[in-house]
Design brief:
Layout: H1 4-7, E1 26-32, H2 38-55, E2 60-66, H3 77-83, E3 88-92, H4 115-137, E4 139-146, E5 150-154, E6 168-171, H5 174-182, E7 186-189, H6 192-201, E8 206-210, H7 211-216, H8 219-222, E9 225-227, E10 235-241, H9 242-246, H10 250-283, E11 297-299, H11 303-325, H12 327-335, H13 337-341
Helix pairs in contact: 2-10, 5-11, 11-12
Amino acid sequence: MPGRSHAAASVSPAVPAAPAGAPASFKLRIVGGLGSINQYTRQEEPFWTQELERLSAGRYDAEIVPFDRAGVPGLEMLRLLQLGVVPFGTALMSSFTAQHPEYTAPDLAGLNPDIATLRVTLAAFRPYLEKALREQHGIEVLAIYVYPAQVVFCKKPLQSLSELAGRRTRVSSSTQADFVGALGGVPVLTGFSEMVPRLTAGSTECAITGTMSGNTVGLHRLTTHVHALPVTWGLAVFGANRAAWQALPVDLRTLLRKELPRLEAAIWEESERETMEGMACNQGASSCTGGRKGSMTLVPVSQKDEIRRREILESTILPRWVERCGALCAQVWNQTIGPARGLVVNSPK
């Protein structure tokens, strides 16, 4: 199972073994990430339901439910964590857009053309995010997860990003909409469950979604071309209500601080691998093992595409994000990601 070895570290000496057959002395209840994807089924769920008990020699265990099956509105997760209604939960960072757009900075459209760049971007932003969530919301950040690359699938031939001009394209966020609009396309904000029906009905011609999630819902049959550029990725914060975190036994907090970074690393590796495998499966390559083989045309990122991405990022994506977000976003950007990426933004007038 990919990445499991990272979660399966040696037992912390601070956690004494429980007597054989004794029940766990403390049971955590976790709200995890999206339930239908491998990052949850192969990494999050096994960590909490199997690894925690093993790592703590039977003293602690947990139950976990994905937020999209827990009846927890994704847009409310930050507030529910702050209130302690959800003591330990996972929030998609894209869900912060309306009330806290400054937190969405690391995954703006066109900002991270590969996962290595995303790592640099997040590393520059993470100290600010952790401090802000702790001091302003009473939330302790325990891990930041990533989902596979979000790329463009189209029903008609596509040779470059510029050919999205005039095409109705499914987007899932305002920053993706800015990206498509800057290319002359027509962004159509669409929920994941509505993506296939709209493509089938012809009300959209293209869609931005994950390389493997697109394969899972059948885009390898519905569309013919897939562009290799990651438009966005998808970051999620796993955090704890600060009071709930402080109420945990000290040895359990120590154990989680040690092991959750390993779970985080395993999820990042899983997402990087799945980004590549999703592309392989959509093309029908022999390396496809985890998806369904299609016969799509993979459109590589040309030099022209790369130049266009950078132009759109600087001329459209960043200015519109700052316009929506205000002076705070400009200040945060110029203190965190801006210096790391060599991109300065101007405060709104």
